[in-house]
Design brief:
560 residues; disordered C terminus
Length: 560
């Protein structure tokens, strides 16, 4: 007997529109593969480069999980399955929610610059990099800074129908073979390697959400899936993910709730990132530090990236109902741009369906021509095009506007946001992490600030002076040894013009240039040290230059 489950309100959204010249050039390109809880294509698992999921923990005990799905491949080969603890209501979600949360809560490591003392004054060097030379050179980075019955017994179809771009089903099963038979019958191609894990979820009474793209939908229309269920806790079905996981796969879980969240069955780690100089100097990555800490904890642990007030974010876009009668395609597309729609793959797919170009190959030129306004190349084609703006407005509202409204609502009704992060390899994915609200979860800032002090002295230009780093913990470390430039102003301007001794020059090149200038100064004396000459380039000049270097070395040793 086939049962139907009511759908929840749609919860999705995507980015805002900037259709400038060449802005649509890359929109037809799919994003890298990534998903949560099993992501399969053409009966083969897709390597999963990461997992991103947002849990909204509601006051009535319901859990709303937004799962980001990114995919690379042919539309007809897309298939995805996810176990859930109870029968979920389905809707679609928004990548904009994930982008906004990531930007607001990503761990960042700043240095606040301070200076002591007075450095050597830089000459203007106008003649060496004036307008005739095209401005100052750049020689590299500055390194300091409808339902169908199951084909046979053992499967219960709770829901079957269209959800956003997906042909979706919610199933339960008592036999893994029967579930596979049903999935294969309806072209949800799931690899055989997933069978043992799916069987394990069947044994726990799990439900399964299966997705594939509808026949007329493009890969660019793939959106996050939203699952709302009333029986269960926030849980990431990581065991099924391991079928296609990459080594040290990053996993980010966001929790919108009334208080902070922790895992009940994974270790909660607090690596002392505030005492790690490499994070502030750019020589180490946060991801590598977390990976090492998780590995040391046995491979099953989470780090709290952020725990605090839910950031104030704006996801909602302006209503489009007034465009339902705008039959001029050029005016319509320009209005989308002006109202913040993004020229992304989702909008491109919708444009291609409701405002198709003369040929698929002309998509970029056609839409950019419309949005720029002055282009008249397609006047004849547009005159014969049966553009139905009301249908397009309805599609935009369902796919983009309504999801943004609902995503905005979950942000505004939850006072606390927790962002947890880990990395895991397939061998470590043996138990699904479960999460719960906890008074023990303390506030964690994602912003970390250290002091970078430049120790100026007359023998140093400011960009080559010694630096020390004062970490948030109070510990001090040497960030850079100073580099004395032994040449005069003319030599400096020549080297700056060549990019080999300048603020943008890598520190190793600074040292090499200074060393070469000191060598040239000594060599200019012709090898004799007995006669002192006051002429430029003589031994006296060489000794004077060398004396500056030696004085700097002595001064540096005293500071140590």
């Amino acid at each position: 007997m086939t049962r139907h489950h009511p759908l929840a309100a749609s919860l999705t959204s995507l980015g805002g529109l900037a259709l400038g010249a060449a802005a649509l050039g890359g929109l037809a390109l799919p994003a890298p593969a990534s998903a949560c809880g099993g992501f399969f294509c053409s009966n083969q698992p897709i390597d999963q480069s990461g997992e991103n999921i947002v849990f909204s923990v509601e006051e009535d005990g319901a859990i709303e999980a937004h799962v980001q799905i990114l995919y690379q491949g042919a539309a007809e080969q897309f298939a995805w399955i996810l176990p859930t603890p109870s029968a979920p209501a389905l809707s679609v979600g928004t990548d904009a929610l994930f982008r906004a949360l990531d930007q607001a809560t990503r761990p960042v490591f700043f240095t606040r610059s301070e200076t002591t003392g007075t450095c050597r004054s830089e000459p203007s060097c106008y003649d060496y990099y004036d307008s005739d030379r095209g401005g100052p050179p750049f020689a590299g980075g500055f390194t300091d800074a409808g339902a169908a019955a199951a084909p046979d017994g053992g499967v219960d179809v709770v829901f079957r129908g269209n959800v956003g771009p997906y042909d979706a089903a919610v199933l339960t099963a008592t036999d893994v073979n029967a579930l596979y038979d049903w999935l294969n019958e309806y072209d949800y191609q799931i690899p055989e390697s997933a069978r043992p894990e799916i069987d394990a979820y069947i044994a726990t009474g799990s439900y399964f959400v299966a997705l594939r793209l509808q026949k007329d939908r493009a890969v660019g229309e793939i959106q996050p899936i939203v699952l709302r269920y009333t029986n269960g806790e926030p849980c990431i079905p990581i065991r099924l993910t391991r079928i296609a996981a990459v080594d040290d796969m990053p996993i980010r879980a966001y929790f919108l709730a009334s208080q902070g969240m922790r895992s009940t069955n994974y270790t909660m780690l607090t690596p002392d990132v505030d005492d790690e100089p490499g994070l502030f100097l750019g020589t180490r990555s946060y991801e590598s530090i977390v990976t090492n800490a998780v590995d040391d904890a046995g491979g099953r642990a989470f780090v709290t990236d952020y725990l605090g007030s839910t950031p104030t974010l704006t996801l909602e876009l302006r209503d489009l109902s007034d465009l339902a009668t705008v039959t001029d395609a050029r005016t319509f597309v320009q209005a989308l741009r002006d109202r913040g729609f993004a020229g992304d793959s989702q909008l491109l797919a919708l444009l291609q369906r409701y405002l198709p170009p003369p040929t698929p190959e002309e998509s970029t030129d056609f839409y950019n021509c419309l949005v720029q306004g002055w282009c008249t190349s397609y006047e004849g084609y547009l005159a014969g095009l049966a553009f139905r703006p009301a249908d397009f407005v309805a599609a935009l509202d369902a796919a983009i506007l309504a999801p943004r409204r609902n995503a905005q609502a979950i942000l505004e009704r939850h006072p606390t946001l927790t962002r947890l992060y880990t990395t895991m390899s397939a061998a470590e994915m043996t138990e699904d992490p479960v999460f719960y609200p906890s008074d023990a979860a303390r506030a964690v800032s994602n912003v970390h600030t250290a002091r970078l002090i430049t120790e100026c002295a007359p023998e140093y230009f400011w960009f080559a002076a010694p630096q020390r780093l004062v970490l948030p913990t109070g510990r001090e470390v040497r960030a850079r040894e100073g580099v004395v430039y032994p040449g005069d102003d003319d030599a400096y301007c020549a080297d700056r013009g060549a990019g080999i001794f300048a603020p943008w020059t890598p520190i190793d090149t600074l040292r090499a240039t200074a060393s070469e200038r000191a060598r040239q100064a000594v060599s200019a004396g012709g090898g004799g040290l007995c006669s002192a000459s006051s002429r430029a380039g003589g031994a006296g000049g060489a000794l004077a230059a060398l004396g500056v270097v030696l004085a700097a070395v002595v001064a540096r040793r005293r500071r140590r």
